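Fresh eyes needed here. Have a critical look at this protein's tokenised backbone.
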Amino acid sequence: DGQGQPLTKSMTWADNRSAAWAEQLKQEPRSHDLYRRTGTPIHAMSPLVKLIWLRQEKPQLFAQAAKFISIKEYIFYRLFQDYWVDYAIASATGLFNLQTLTWDQEALEIAGITEHKLSQLVPTTQVLRPMNPTSAELMGIPVDTPIVIGASDGGLANLSVGAIAPGKVVVTVGTSGAVRTLVNQPWTDPQERLFCYALTPDLWIVGGAVNSGGIILQWVRDQLSHAATAAALDQDPYDWLAEMAQSVAPGAGGLIFHPYLAGERAPLWDNRARGAFIGLTLEHTQAHLIRAVFEGIAFNLNLVLQALQDCIGIPTSIQATGGLAQSEFWRQLLADVFVQEVSVVASYGSSCWGAAVLGLYALQRIPSLDAINSSWGNTQRYIPNPDNVEVYRKIFPVYMRLLDCLQEEYANLAECG
């Protein structure tokens, strides 16, 4: 509100209450040009669509708001008593024009707001000072400590492993997942499968974020596995899942899993997508189901990678990061499904390390963003297994054809649910 007090709890990307408004906006003739200018696919995750939902369904709350901001902007407001937003966060809102680096006027009109309701735009390398004395005292640091506003976690994950040259791809899987690369100018996908947002004035992130990551494995842990068995063996339940998956052959005995238990962002951008096991027989065991889930997540990421290849061609390298990258089984599975070497560096999980690199660069402590690549640690490499590749080359086209057949029916099921 006008006094800087939050009017709602934070609404995350996974909040799908605005899904119907996303579908309505997609049907408008101007939707493709809107995506082309902003680089944000039209989806319930988008702050643009959430604003439409708020305006239409929570009009009193919408009218009461003086600012619409992210949690990061709120933290900076508490530090500086002013509203700032970096280009990276802004360009994931669906409200930011990639070419002009300003708020997009038509997007604002669609949302029903003016730019005065948003924060002031600054580059990701912007240094802010002095801090609010109260905040500085609470943290025990001087008020004139330089604070670099930084970027968003996706681009920083690439930066953390030195994947900043065109053609270098990073696959991150934590709770959700993403496939990303950096390019030297904004690029949008004619089929609207990918996002594009800013890192620095000459580096732009292109890729796709997926819902179908570790959260699917959490569901498997809770519904399809014996977590108590793993605990009795003093074993991490996710390690137990990986062991179970490896106990059956690649291809899970002809069982396919669509991992859309939470709808899907890239490459479908469909909140109504559903999960499915396809091809079940009496011969299939718990281990087959678990392996099919791992493979389904990898197949979905491969769909995003194929879309990305339309932009950059065949990647020069693929690096795995995120919590799931701790699993050697997962690393090898990615290499086999992608049919390309996958590497993992010691700092595989550290978007905050990428933030530190960006901060050092902004403060001119290092001459370039790749000046400290020797700090990334040892690299482990996983080469595609030819036997496994042969299996997945047969299964993956079936996965895609089934998706084409079932996606409309998933929407019908969502309406029945």
Summary: DSSP finds 16 helices and 15 strands in the chain.
